[in-house]
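Sample entry (388 residues):
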Amino acid sequence: MLPLCPLGLCGEVFDRLNTPESQMTQRSRRESSVQKEIVTVKRITTFARRLLIEWRRLDLAREDATVIVAVSGGADSTALLLALHELLTADKLNVGIVVAHLDHGLRPQSRQDARWVSELAKKLGSRFVSKRVNLAKTRAGDNLEQTARKARYEFLLRTAQKQKSEYVLTAHTLDDQAETILMRLLRGSAAEGLSGMRTSRPLAPGSDILLVRPLLAWARRAATENYCRSRGFEFLTDEMNDDERFSRVRVRKQLLPLMHSFNNRIVETLSRTGDLLNEDATALAAEANGLLVQARSDSLQNNETELPSLSVSVLLQKPAAIRRRALRDWISQARGNLNRLEMVHLIAVENLLRDGRGGRFIELPGGMTVTRRRGNLELSGKKGLKKR
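Predicted structure, serialized as tokens:
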């Protein structure tokens, strides 16, 4: 008589004794396959797994592609590079990684930082591309931040073109998103600005190269630091991140901590609000685009510049929320950017629609002028005759 089996295992033993050998072999193979899969999954950290989920959600290439990864050496970009390497090692991705580092020349140790990133890329088996520019003479403050940003994206665009890559990855996090939304709120941005950064967009107007932020929707700054430490990797720190001459640093160190005292999940809340506003802004943008097309085609086209004019009567047919978006897109397409253009400027241009007098004009940041003439709005680099 067989002894009693603990935990009800006798039934399993009996089944095996009465199961044909071929079935036993198949079962053994299945169990072995499942076990291998479990072992593989266990090798991937939670941070890397969440990156893989976002990678799939964004429908990014998983094989036979070259990806440019912008790496400054800070915790965020180092964590992104490490997590990609982890996914490559686990055969979850099969893409080529090119580490791109721009040395802004703003700090004495910036050359050492570039060498540090180069060594990290070499250790992980990734190609490394770098460039040094000298922004040290740029006036400190927000102007410096904008100049550095422009130089960085120009460098990334050229690198992607040379490497024939369709993707440029940056390591912006939920914290960066919250800071961006608050800075735009303080400047009086509309829904598009308050939507924050997008997880994916063209790197440049008309470009097929995508700028992708795969950490933006889920990763906190503390998580990137912890992930680097858990992998046994150091990361660089930039003292400029503590320089409160920059508005972003003041938002990070003063405003967000104060808001955190009212809502301890303020970063996630701001990000969620940005997502909701983005949905609204997308719908309104479609309406604004249609209005812009119609206002162009119905304008008299007798302006003194080569830029297309807009019909005042057509613009007045739509609500202010749609008109302002159409005007913003019109100005953006002519200038190539929206730098320093704020809501106050759009409202001033919109006021020209209600003023029936011709010859009135509004000066925009950067030297361009919007003039009302013969039932149209005209955009040029020349000053008008009568200042409003």
